Amino acid sequence: MKVEAIDYGDRRVFSVGAFNRGVASWLGRLPSVWVEGEVTELRRQERWASVFFTLKDPLEGACLGVSMPRGRFDALRLDLADGDRVHAYGRPELFEARGEFRLRALSLERFGLGDHLAALERLKRKLADEGLFAAERKRPLPGLPRRIGLITGNDAAAKRDVLTAITTRFPPARVLVAETYVQGPRAAGAVVEALRALCREPEIDVLVVARGGGSFEDLLPFSDERLVRAIASCPVPVVTAVGHEQDTPLCDLAADARASTPSLAGRLVVPDLAKLHDRLDRARSGLERGTRRTLERERQRVDRAYERLTRAPRLLLERGRARLEHAAGRLRALAPPATLERGYAIVRAGDQIVRAGTAVSPGRRVDVELAEGGFGARVEDTR
Amino acid sequence: MTEEPTFEQAQRELEEIVHRLESGEAPLDEALLLWQRGEELYRFCRERLDSAEGKIEELAGRAEAAKP
């Protein structure tokens, strides 16, 4: 659309009407969107073509004038009262005659707590389907973080509770605190920014996001999709302690650990120093005990081996002696004297041992040897 | 130690060493090496605990900047 201007030398000047027409035409190119707010100052008259009201942002107090064709408004039968929460669908518009900016609504829906819950439920299902809340995504918390990042509001309670819990349990803890908005429309973005800022700091091993209790709406930023995603994709484990036990903002589901109070969150991120010392000392004495036991066992093994070593030759000797005795016994048993002991005699004729009667003839002298001594004899007859 | 382990890694290794030593399965040479390594780990862990000094800082500058 062409906007006509008047030229005064090198200055182009627009009439008010032309200026408004130009801005109106530019605004007219913006898309239709949904806007949420509370209805105030509703003005409706039978003779007007449009209904007028103001939408107010309950958190920031920002205001937006809205007009809506009366026929459409009446057809919805919303029976709106001051303070009712609505979603208005429309596009920005400039009322050219007065240069007033407002939202030209085409549709209007009541939006209450129930709708908030339903929207949260949808978001929760969507993120769950993506696996953001899956148990296998949860990372273990560090046993001894080098440095702890704490994100909290500047309200004293939650911050103090976390810090007290941390320093009581583990006095040498190092904590980096980032204070941000934890309520209102900027909170989600501010917490996400604090999360990123803390992650850029060196040696941060774990993050705590703590916020005290509040109304359902106060805690809504902690169910914000951006924040939930930022927690899920945070490079270090995140512990959340938001609201009270019964509140479950979505950020709790994406966090690696969830604490029901800020104090408990503090206890989760640091070890108990006294117990840690005990455990280390136990390991130390185990180390000594184990080494001593191994040394003792090895010493005994060497001793046993040495003993066997020295015993070995003596054993051999004894075995040899026993074998010798056995042989000697057999030898003695078989030798002639032993036979003579049993009553046998050896008969010799000259040098020859007499083994048969025919080897001698009557009258021949023979020598008889007995076990003890012997005698000479003559042969009487032979057989 | 080539790369500095975290406290928990050191603590876990120390306890594994103790377990191995106490099981009595390690031969002497290994036991002596384990003991040496265990002492090293113990000293490392103690140092980590004793040298740490409690410190609470505010990320003031950046948090302010983050506020719109």
Number of strands of chain A: 16
Strand content of chain B: 5-15%
Number of domains of chain A: 3
Cα-atom Rg of chain B, whole angstroms? 19 Å
β-strand amount of chain A? 25-35%
Radius of gyration of chain A, in angstroms, nearest whole number: 56 Å
Topology of helices and strands:
The complex is a heterodimer of chains A (383) and B (68).
Chain A: E1 6-8, E2 11-13, H1 16-27, E3 33-43, E4 50-56, E5 63-69, H2 70-76, E6 85-95, E7 100-110, H3 113-129, E8 147-152, H4 156-169, E9 174-179, H5 187-200, E10 204-211, H6 216-219, H7 225-232, E11 238-242, H8 250-254, E12 257-258, H9 262-269, H10 273-334, H11 336-341, E13 346-349, E14 352-353, E15 365-369, E16 374-378
Parallel strand pairs in A: 5-7, 8-9, 8-10, 10-11, 11-12
Antiparallel strand pairs in A: 1-2, 3-4, 3-6, 4-5, 6-7, 13-14, 13-15, 15-16
Helix pairs in contact in A: 4-9, 5-7
Chain B: H1 7-23, H2 28-51, E1 55-58, H3 60-66
Model description:
The complex is a heterodimer of chains A (383) and B (68). In chain A, helix 4 (156-169) packs parallel to helix 9 and helix 5 packs parallel to helix 7. Chain A has three domains: 6-111, OB fold (Dihydrolipoamide Acetyltransferase, E2P), CATH 2.40.50.140; 144-274, Rossmann fold; 338-378, no CATH class. Chain A has 383 residues and is α/β, with parallel strands linked by helices. Chain A starts with 5 loop residues before the first strand and ends in a 5-residue tail after the last strand. In chain A, strand 1 (6-8) and strand 2 form a beta hairpin. Chain A has helices spanning 16-27, 70-76, 113-129, 156-169, 187-200, 216-219, 225-232, 250-254, 262-269, 273-334, 336-341; strands at 6-8, 11-13, 33-43, 50-56, 63-69, 85-95, 100-110, 147-152, 174-179, 204-211, 238-242, 257-258, 346-349, 352-353, 365-369, 374-378. Chain A is rod-shaped, with a radius of gyration of 56 Å. Chain B is mainly alpha-helical. Chain B has a domain at 7-53. Chain B has three helices and one strand. Chain B has helices spanning 7-23, 28-51, 60-66; one strand at 55-58. The longest helix of chain B is centred in the middle third of the chain and has 24 residues, at 28-51. The model of chain B is unreliable at 62-68 (pLDDT under 50). At the A-B interface, strand 9, helix 5 and helix 10 of A face helix 1, helix 2, strand 1 and helix 3 of B. Strand 9 (174-179) of chain A pairs parallel with strand 1 of chain B.
